[in-house]
Amino acid sequence: MYLFMEEYTEIMNGYQNERDIVTRLNNQLIKDLPAHFQHWLRILFIDHSSPLKVIKLNNEQKADIAIRCGSKTIYVSIKSGEGNSFHSEQIHTFIPFLRSIGVSESTLKTMVFFHYGDNTLNGTGRTRLTSAELRRKHSKYFNKTSKELSNHHVMRHLISRCVVKGRYPNNFSIDGIYHGTINDGFFLPRDMIYKILLCNSNIRKNGTINMKMLTYQPGSRNLWGIPGTEQKRHNCEVKWRSFTKDALNHLRFSR
């Protein structure tokens, strides 16, 4: 129950932060904004003379807000805190997506095996293992799966689905990620997202399933059979756990 409330609180804080940013930016001139907003808005917009028009987008989009200035509109994902969960969907849609971009059946089976953690491929097993237990027994297979998922072709598709655009073809691609609040923050443009996540040296190694610096995990293995949590076993999540560090390092060295 505590973990559920902690997750719920983090989500609600995130929504409030998005609303605060919309309120802070809407109807403002770029020149009147704090420096941590001015810097990237001046780069993305040629016309600085018109007031900004900012709206909150629906949850199907990777972009949380749309910002219009003059005739141009940009789409921004907003992150705050340290959780940095970037994507969530049902495993029964994620696996077919991976199959459609050429991921091997052996890798897909390993992912499903890891996802449910109960020695089955459908979640019907009685004994549910923790990630630590799974790593001890099957890390060799998880490492092999991570290697295939981290190849350049697969990664470009994964970045688009999990970070930049999302599941739906008509979604807007984000122009970048703003991490922070109305008081402070930084902006990572889309081209830098790809540059960081496609870099050959950026590979996360923790014995589970990773796509370069992105980490794959189930929504919950529900190890203790908590009522109301069982349906989350079919959700998969993709996290970029080191996002803040990776982004700030890249921004620092790109100046």
Give a verbal description of the structure.
The longest helix has 24 residues, at 2-25. With 255 residues, this protein is α+β, with helices and mostly antiparallel strands. The model is unreliable at 1-5 (pLDDT under 50). It has helices spanning 2-25, 35-44, 91-100, 105-116, 131-149, 152-164, 190-198, 243-254, and strands at residues 53-56, 65-69, 72-79, 85-90, 176-180, 185-189, 210-211, 214-218, 235-239. It folds into 2 domains: 2-79, 3-Layer(aba) Sandwich (Trna Endonuclease, Chain: A, domain 1); 85-171 and 190-254, no CATH class. Strands 1-2-3-5-6 form a 5-stranded mixed β-sheet, sandwiched between helices.
Count of spatially separate domains: 2
The Rg value, from CA coordinates, equals 20 Å
Q: Which strand-content bin applies to the residues?
A: 15-25%
Structural class: alpha+beta
Q: H/E order of the elements? A: HHEEEEHHHHEEHEEEH
What's the story with the biggest beta sheet?
5 strands, mixed
| Helix segment tally | 8
For the largest sheet, list the strands in their spatial order: 1-2-3-5-6
Mean pLDDT: 92
How many individual β-strands? Answer: 9
User: What portion of residues is helical?
Assistant: 40-55%
- The low-confidence parts are 1-5
What general outline do the C-alpha atoms trace? elongated
